[in-house]
Structure formats: C-alpha cells, structure tokens
Amino acid sequence: MINNFVFVALFLLGFYAILVKKNLIKMVIGLNIMEGAIFYWFITLTDRGGLIPIVKSSQVVNNLNDPIPQALILTGIVIGASTSAFLLTLIIELNKFTNSTNPDQLGGMLED
Amino acid sequence: MSTSLILLIIIPLATAFAIPFVDIFSNKARKYLVVFTTFLELFILVTIIFNNYSSILNGTLFLKYYMGNWIPPIGITLVMDMLSIFFSTMITFAMVFIVIYSIGFIGHHEGKYYVLLFLIWAAMQGIILTGDIFNLDVFLELLLITSAPLVAFKRNREGTEAAIKYMFYGTIGGLFVFIGVVLVYFNLGTLNFAHISQNFNSLSFFIKKMISIFFLLGIFIKLGIFPFHFWLSKAHSACPSSISALLSGVIVKVYIYVFIRLFWNVIGFEVLIENGLDKVILIAALISSIIGHIMALNEDDIKKMLAYSTVANLGMIISVLTLNTKLAIIAALLHVFGHLLMKISLFTTTGYLLQFTPGHKLEDLKGVAYKNKLLFIGFIVAAGGMIGLPPMIGFSSKWYILRAFINQNIHWGSIIIIVGSVIAFVYYIRFIIYGFKKISIGPPEKFRLILSVFYRERVVTDIAIFFAVAIIIAGIFYKIALIPINGAAEMLQNPYIYVETILGG
Q1: Among A25, B1, B5, B182, which has the minimal tally of Cβ within 10 Å of its Cβ?
Q2: Beta-carbon separation of A94 and B155 below 8 A
C-alpha cells in the first residue's frame, strides 16, 4: 500500500516541477522524477519476494520473481535517458539563441 | 506465418542505420539507396496485397508473424488485419511521395534527415503491425524522439522552441501510456493484445476505468485534442514543409490508429460506455474541432493556419469515431484517408510556393499563383477538398460523417461540423484570392535560398498534379476505398474475431 502513496507523491512532485519551475532544466528533472516514480511503482508492485532471475537451469527454485518487469523497466530507462538527453540538447540550443532557460520564452507551455 | 510483415519494419530500420555509412563514401550512393529502399518497401506491401487479394475483398485478411517463434500470448506477435493493411498502405504510399519530394528539397544535412525519416517510417510500421502493448509503447516513444529532431530541423529559435514543447508534451503523453501498460501487466499478467482483450472484463470497474483514462490521456496529449492542443500548431509549422506534411498528414494518422486499436480491439468500446467516457471524448473532440477552425481563421501565417486545420479535422475524426456505429467508423476512416491526401498536398504545394515569398503571412503570398499555375491548381483542389466541395474526397467523407451524426440523432454535432466547414471556406478562400492578386508595382523577385536550395520544379509540380487528380478521383470513386474500410469496420464491430484468430493458433 505504501508504494502506491510513494508513487503518487513522487509523480505529483515531478508534475509540480514541470508546472511551476521557471527553468527548463528543472522541468526536465521533473520529467525524470515522474519516470522514476513509475519505474519504482512497477518494480515494487510485481515484487513477490522471491529469487531474482537469471537462474541456472540446475537450480531448483520454488519462488521466482517475474523477469518481465525488469525487461520492461530497462527499456523504459533507456527511453527516458534518450528523451532527457535530447531535451537537454534542445535547451542548450535554445540558450544559444536567447541566453536564458526560462520556459516563459516559449510563449508559455499552455499557450499556442 | 508470413515473413514479409517483419520485412516491412526491418527494411526502413536497416536503411536508417546504413545511410551514415553510405554517406561517408558518396552522396549520390545515398540518394540511390534511399530511393531503392522506398520502392522495395512499396514492392513488399504490394506483394502482400496481391497475394491476399481475395481475402482483402472479403474482409477476412489476417496475417501473423511470431517473433522468435514464440506462440502467443508469450512472445511478440506481428498482426496484419484489415485495419492494419488500410493504414499501412496509406502510410507507405504517403512516405513514397514524401521521400520523392524531399530529394530535391532539403539541401542541407541530408544524411541526418534521411536517417530520421526512415526511423520514423520504421516506427510507424511497427506501431501499425505490432500485437503487443509494450512494443506499441516503445514504438510510440521511438516515433516521438525521431520526429522531434525534424521539428527543430531549421535550427532557428522558432523550431527549437516548438521542438522543446513537442518533446515535453509527447513525453508526458508517453508516460501516461506507460502507466496504462503497467496497470495492464500488473492486473492481467500479459502484454498481448488478444490476451488482454480476452481477460479484460474480469477486472474490477475501478481498474478498468483507470486503465482507460490513462490510455486516453496519453493518446489525447499525443494527438492534440482539445485540452492539450497547445503544442500542435507550433510543432507542425516550424519545420520544413516536407516534414510538416509528414507530421500533419501521416504521423497523426498513426495516433488515430492507436486510438482505434486500443479502444476497440484491446479494451473494448463497451468499457468506455459503461464509464461514461464516450460522451467526454465526444464533447472534447467537438470542442477541439470548432476551436481549431476558429484559431485557423484568426491565423495569418499560412502554415500555422494549416496546422490548426489539422487540429479541427482530428477533432472531427475522433468525435465521429465515438458514435461507434458501423457507418461512423466507415466515415472516420474515409476522412482519415481523405485528410492524408489533402494535407500532404496542401503542405507540399505551400512549401514550394513559399520559396517565392518573403514570409509566411497572408500579404506575402500576393500574386504567388502566377509563379506556377499548375501547382496552384493543385493547392486549390486540396483546399476545396478540405472545405468539402463536391467532386473531392473531402465532400464524400464529410457527407458520411454528417450521416453518421444524424443517424445517431446528435444534431448539434452535425451543426458544429457544418459551421466548421463554412469557417474553413472563409480561411482557405482568403489565401486563394490573395494568390491571384496582381501586383501592380513589380517588387524584385525574392528567391529565398536560405533553406530550400533546389526544388526540382518538374517533380514538385508533378506531385501536386498527381495529388489533385488523386483527390478528385478518390472523391468520385470513393467506393473503392470503402472495400478495405468496410472490412476494417466489420472487424472492429466484432473484436472477438481478432482474439480467436490470434489465440486460436
């Protein structure tokens, strides 16, 4: 039960950073916190308290943790890393044009 | 098992990674490689269509490919049914024209451009063919992260800002889809579409609602439907015109495909109805439609105007889909087809015409029709289709949409669509009239050779004429397009066929 609360708290924290912070890099950090919240939640939800794969074929195991969430989260981490790397590149590029990392210069995130 | 399905994804993916190596040796070889791959992909798709000609006519096409020979529900399954082949064909033909158009157009950083273009192509084919929900999520992220560099391709301030916005919205949308995937896997222990669909009704009411809401949020953010439409106009207008055509004409159609596949095949539309979400979608989409038209009317910049018109048309397609009758699905898919043709035509012709003008504003386009009359006729035909004038495909699809609304007794919906068409008439006719205005004091010929170095005039004009003819022919003989659409609508009405065919062997 506590993992749900932690997930919601972390997710909203990241969302708060995106909505309120006046620095694009902090907004990217907020995005990463949101991603991390989901990964944490998924890993704790599917944890059965068993042995962690990979297991040797000779080993006899009664209680084994599900290996699929690991694979999914690993993919998710790679996606998140590449997304934030590219966003940071864009922010550097924007900084070259305007000398600032304030999101208000985008005309506000919630305006066209 | 049909191996050609995996080839449809692998060929563009492999080309994307081969281009940088070929680029080291010669630029000319890269050009030949790009054209060769494009036609190879087209050839494979046409082979699939010809080999299964009779089953397409019957509407019973069903091809499968098990990755690594894992029988579902364990492995990743690639599936091609009537809906997939309809979208896959549209996208392949559209990409062929976009690649041909790009060859004379881009002129700088061409190697990087084609790498990204082919990665986008692979991602789109992957989304359309996959039968696995996490694989879908990965391909969605791949589509986002490969299309965002193209938004910033002009490397100016405007493009960078648009790309940052696009990335933020797209990533948050992707996170919501990922939460949906997590909830599905935790509650059902499976990622296969058919297996999820089979067991979905065993879930509790609350979980079903949460999963639907998260998927809906993700797809709506990525599509730019009403509360999240802020990023779309900037992103779709800040890039070179070939990419605008790709984003506005093709990529949004892929998101519509995801919407249809998830909410008809995987989750099931009854879940949305029992949660009362279908009315929410209908209202949001109709608001999006009317807002898009009004914003387009306010806009002086021609590319932003076209982008807002995309918002409006997407709203229209989504709203008619939520009526969930066979007629409504046929209408929506027909408009997807028509909008793809018309938007690509509008953006490609606009991109050519804009090289003669000092800017993108309405006044700058004065007298642009006299630069290339045949091409401007193409622009007029496509604009007429967007308004919904009779011989074009836009008329037949809007006719179907109105019929679907009236059959369900949602008259205010049909009124919104008619009002939208009238507004569209106003904002397109402005540009056409300005295009024909003679300039009395001849200003110097301003060729803006900043970005678009060479357009091959013949090629671009031929593409414009081809699209104009295609729009009119599709408008007259739209019954031919209805063959696959009918099959797809039939299949979406009976989602258990999909489940049985995949899990049954």
Answers
A1: B1
A2: no
In this complex, which of B141, B157, B191 lies closest to A79 when CB atoms are compared?
B141
CA atoms within 13 A on the CB side of B431: 31
Q: What are phi and psi of B104, to 5 degrees?
A: -90, 0
Output the DSSP codes for B412-424. Answer: HHHHHHHHHHHHH
Cα gap B156→A90, rounded to integer Å: 11
CA B471 – CA B340 distance, rounded (Å): 10
Cβ–Cβ < 8 Å for B316, B335: yes
CB-based contact A101:A24 (threshold 8 Å): yes
Q: Which residue blocks in B26-156 are alpha helix, DSSP H? A: 27-51, 53-58, 82-103, 110-129, 133-151
Q: Can you tell me the distance from the alpha carbon of A67 to that of B461, in angstroms, rounded to the nearest whole number?
A: 55
**Token pair for residue B362?**
């309405």
Yes or no: say if B259 and B314 are a contact pair by the CB < 8 Å rule.
no
Token digits of residue B384: 């007429």
Query: Which has the closest alpha carbon to B350: B291, B421, B420, B434?
Result: B434
B261/B83 Cα distance (integer angstroms): 9
B77-80 and B63-66 beta bridge pairing? antiparallel
Binary contact (B138, A75; C-beta < 8 A): yes
Mutate to test the interface with B, among A89, A90, A99, A101 (most CBs of B within 10 A): A90
Angle between helices A68-98 and B157-188 (to 10 degrees): 170
How does pLDDT run across A7-43, given as a tens digit for each residue? Answer: 999 999 999 999 898 899 999 999 999 999 999 999 9
For chain B, what is the mean pLDDT?
Answer: 89
Looking at the complex, does the CB of residue B182 fall below 8 Å from at least one CB of chain A?
A: yes
Angle at A60 between CA A56 and CA A66, to 5 degrees: 70
What distance lies between CA B3 and its chain's CA centroid? Answer: 26
Closest CA to A25 of B213, B308, B415, B164: B164
CA dist A85 and A88 (Å) reads 5
Where is B476: in which H helix or E strand? helix B457-476
Could you report the per-residue pLDDT of B16-34, keeping only the tens digit for each? 999 999 988 888 899 899 9
**Across the interface, do B163 and A83 touch by the CB < 8 Å criterion?**
no
| Dihedral over Cα of B490, B496, B502, B505: its sign | negative
Asked if omega into B273 is within 30° of 0 (cis), the reply is no
For the packed helices A68-98 and B133-151, what is the interaxial angle rounded to 10 degrees?
10
Contacts of B175 (CB under 8 A, 6+ apart): A31, A34, A35, A38, B218
